[in-house]
Design a protein that fits this description.
Strand order of the largest sheet: 1-3-2
Number of helices: 4
Helix content: 25-40%
Distance between the termini: 23 Å
Shape: globular
Oligomer: single chain
Strand content: 5-15%
Radius of gyration: 13 Å
Length: about 100
């Protein structure tokens, strides 16, 4: 994973923060925007999944899988059990 991908992933989780735990898991970005290709690569590696934006959204949403979230945690940061369960349910779906 590149440094840019790591930064995008941590931003999607709302890190860093005082609680040292993610409080969200999403990143919305439009096709062709700076960073979109990085997210596509993360999806291909199984570290994220993509949900195509709907009529009310101007971009696609990317969500980290549990493997993706764990890959960017720093020492003393952790994922709640509830959030880990939600991340375990995320699977890549081919469009």
């Amino acid at each position: 994973m590149t440094e840019k991908q790591r930064e995008l992933m941590r931003h999607a989780l709302g890190l860093p923060n005082k609680q040292k735990t993610p409080y969200r898991n999403h990143f919305c970005i439009g096709v062709g925007s700076d960073g979109y290709e990085e997210w596509e690569e993360l999806v291909s590696k199984g570290l994220a999944v993509r949900a195509i934006g709907g009529a009310n959204w101007s971009g696609d949403f990317f969500y980290l899988t549990l493997a993706g979230a764990k890959a960017v945690l720093l020492p003393k940061e952790h994922i709640s059990r509830e959030d880990a369960e939600k991340m375990r349910s995320l699977v890549a779906v081919e469009s």
